[in-house]
Amino acid sequence: xxxxxxxxxxxxxxxxxxxxxxxxxxxxxxxxxxxxxxxxxxxxxxxxxxxxxxxxxxxxxxxxxxxxxxxxxxxxxxxxxxxxxxxxxxxxxxxxxxxxxxxxxxxxxxxxxxxxxxxxxxxxxxxxxxxxxxxxxxxxxxxxxxxxxxxxxxxxxxxxxxxxxxxxxxxxxxxxxxxxxxxxxxxxxxxxxxxxxxxxxxxxxxxxxxxxxxxxxxxxxxxxxxxxxxxxxxxxxxxxxxxxxxxxxxxxxxxxxxxxxxxxxxxxxxxxxxxxxxxxxxxxxxxxxxxxxxxxxxxxxxxxxxxxxxxxxxxxxxxxxxxxxxxxxxxxxxxxxxxxxxxxxxxxxxxxxxxxxxxxxxxxxxxxxxxxxxxxxxxxxxxxxxxxxxxxxxxxxxxxxxxxx
Length: 405
What we know:
Layout: E1 3-4, E2 7-8, H1 21-30, E3 57-59, H2 60-63, E4 65-66, E5 75-79, E6 84-86, E7 92-97, E8 107-112, E9 118-122, E10 132-138, E11 142-149, E12 154-163, E13 166-177, E14 181-189, E15 192-199, E16 210-216, E17 223-228, E18 237-239, E19 242-245, E20 248-249, E21 256-263, E22 271-276, E23 285-288, E24 293-297, E25 311-315, E26 321-324, E27 333-335, E28 338-342, E29 347-351, E30 356-360, E31 372-373, E32 377-378, E33 381-389, E34 395-404
Parallel strand pairs: 3-26, 4-30, 27-32
Antiparallel strand pairs: 1-2, 5-34, 6-7, 7-8, 8-9, 10-11, 11-12, 12-13, 14-15, 15-16, 16-17, 18-19, 19-21, 20-21, 21-22, 23-24, 24-25, 25-26, 27-28, 28-29, 29-30, 31-33, 33-34
């Protein structure tokens, strides 16, 4: 089993034309721009569920202007068929590789964003041939992966040091689970690995709490950041050393999800911001920019006000939201006021400072999902990849493109 269109088979990885000064002021608030100050003007989150109406929504497709940004790939590389990329930070992207070998159905590697070269860093699972690699991430100083036995659905999470395209030190077993526990959703930031351990929704442990944990290279074990009564809604995202998780909140009142930004600069893990969605609305993905949340909803609800509509939102509690009304197909990356939003057919770039948007076309012969993002969170190097087919529609290779933004 492998990764297909962002999901591993067998387990879900799931994931103005403005006419008035007042309207312009609303947009400034929604995009984090302020005419009268900075952090001191931000209101503290109330922790209350947010239900808003259309007056608090700025629609990109209705109110922004389509414009050609002149974006072109700074680098384009042709990679072996089956390569899957994950770019958390820095100048290396983790890679799941599929060599043509019966002994190695998949291997772990890294892609250099400077040269485009692929390097294999681990060929064999630590647990032997019954296990295969399930997921992988790398950062500037840490590398992490999950091994799984698809027959028993037992899994183990490992972390190891990483430097200049190579593993360092010895691997450490960070966590493990069986068929009652979902393989962890995890990310890497600096020298640490952050993961969520959650019970399968349909397993015998479904009523157990979920936990978000963090491990540093060199530590004997990880430490807990957060406990959620129920499963986390999204993959953990780290951007500029701020962690975004979406635990269950307000448990005595119903089913509520609270997008929560956590400071990672020290081990106190201080909560910086939070935005609680209306009852029973579950986000598809979420990340914090340092000023506001970027989150997506993958279904339209008949309740919850304007935050119950399918699409991607940019904003925070008490302020208007910039809204892109297309079905999200992956997470959102950003740099400054530009946000890179993945839909099924293309990547859209939304500029909330200039009130404009554009799209990045997928390579020829890349059907269905087209380009898929490898980069996440704040990035100056936006990496995307796609499976390219020949004229007969047969998958031929992977095209990776790097945009300097």
